[in-house]
Write a structure and sequence with these properties.
Layout: E1 2-3, H1 5-8, H2 13-19, H3 24-27, H4 43-55, H5 65-78, H6 82-101, H7 111-123, H8 128-144, H9 154-169, H10 182-189, H11 196-210, H12 215-219, E2 226-229, E3 232-237, E4 248-253, H13 261-272, E5 281-285, E6 299-304, H14 307-320, H15 332-343, H16 348-355, H17 360-366
Helix pairs in contact: 4-6, 6-8, 7-8, 7-9, 11-13, 11-15, 15-16
């Protein structure tokens, strides 16, 4: 039996690197005043400790101060989104592997060594955005272990500044995923067949577009979070990137065209017989059988697809429609929804609400502007 893992479970490091970064939220990461990590240990021990530490659950409280401190530290780690923790694990593994090859101790580290590591990673072709993530992960590692942070050393800051300047000089700028606007989405949907995978992918694409959803939000949707109303579905997200502690309600309205997300979802759920649990799941395709035998049915998994699977599905369907698949990704549906609204003259405040952004600056990052000369403020004046 084969499955669509090759399509769905590919890791897309460029998407991960752009989802977390070296920002103020990272700088305010876990601060522990007492050493707790394997200080001075070999690289393998540090890497293993970090993996376990990042994924650990809060301990059972027994009334002791030690247990309460451990619980507080664990809850502080939980403030990081799963995507961030996953990216940090990969970055710390890379850092420890580099230290091991050079006979260095990864914890604690010297600023000069961190700078050399970043220069080495740049030499391997990593982008400045990915290197910012590497730096943030090393900072988090040291704070979690109660060590002095080496990433604020002037050598590190100047190295990163030089890398960014060189990248800009070479025209190497972060490439945003293409916005899957309504017009593009129609072209992507056109060749999708009405088989089981086609029904799932169509529902996924339309739900992500109509709700301006991020890939993690889309992958985690459960039947219990969908409420039927006269005007469409109310999707309740327990948490989002912009709201980690409060639930957010996203409207999925009925449509009059082939872009209707409600009917697409209903068709997929009916065909897959999904009445509870994750809405979007992996599908295992059956092996080929002789022509004289009835074809076996695909098998639908019980677990939700991953956020990377969402990006892979978008890319695969875009490529099948004749687009450059790698130009699309997990952000394409959200960017497409907001860009479509902008092109239709929707007020920015409504776009900000649809995208659930905290500021208009963040909203602007998701918009894809067309002809820069169209509607120029000085048209007719110059």
């Amino acid at each position: 039996m084969t499955d669509d893992r090759a399509v769905e479970d590919r890791v897309l490091p460029e998407d991960v690197a752009t989802s977390v970064g070296d920002n103020d939220a990272d700088r305010s990461a876990l601060v522990i005043l007492r050493p707790t990590g394997p200080i001075g240990s070999d690289a393998a021990s540090v890497s293993a400790w970090f993996d376990t530490m990042v994924d650990s659950d809060a301990p059972v409280l027994d009334g002791s101060l030690a247990a309460e401190r451990e619980a507080a530290e664990t809850y502080a780690r939980m403030a990081k989104a799963e995507n961030t923790r996953r990216a940090y694990r990969a970055a710390v593994r890379a850092w420890c592997a580099w230290c091991d090859k050079r006979g260095l101790t990864p914890l604690p580290a010297a600023g000069a060594d961190v700078a050399a590591f970043l220069a080495s990673e740049r030499g391997r072709g990593l982008t400045p955005e990915t290197l910012k993530l590497r730096r943030a992960a090393i900072r988090y590692l040291h704070r979690a272990a109660g060590c002095a942070v080496p990433t604020d050393d002037v050598a590190v800051s100047e190295t990163m500044a030089g890398i960014s300047r060189q990248a800009a000089r070479q025209g190497e700028t972060p490439r945003k995923k293409v916005a899957a606007t309504a017009a593009i989405l129609r072209q992507i949907l056109a060749p999708i067949p009405d088989d089981l995978r086609g029904l799932r992918d169509r529902a996924l694409l339309l739900t992500g577009f109509a709700g301006a959803l991020r890939r993690a939000e889309l992958a985690s949707i459960r039947v219990e979070q969908l409420e039927q109303t006269e005007r469409g579905l109310r999707l309740t997200l327990p948490q989002t990137k912009g709201s980690q502690t409060d639930a957010v309600t996203v409207p999925l309205p009925y449509g009059q065209t082939e872009l209707c997300p409600v009917r697409a979802l209903a068709a997929w759920q009916k065909a897959a017989r999904i009445t509870a649990g994750p809405v979007f799941r992996r599908i295992w395709l059956p092996r080929k059988v002789p022509p004289d035998q009835p074809p076996p049915l695909p098998r639908i998994g019980s677990q939700a697809i991953t956020p990377w699977a969402v990006a892979a599905i978008v890319q695969a369907r875009a490529a099948a429609a004749g687009f450059g698949g790698r130009e699309f990704g997990g952000h394409s549906l959200k960017r497409g929804a907001l860009t479509t609204g902008m092109d239709r003259g929707v007020h920015p405040a409504k776009l900000k609400r649809l995208g659930r952004h905290k500021s208009f600056d963040v909203l602007g990052e998701y918009l894809e502007f067309g002809d820069l000369f169209e509607g120029h403020p000085l048209t007719g004046v110059l």
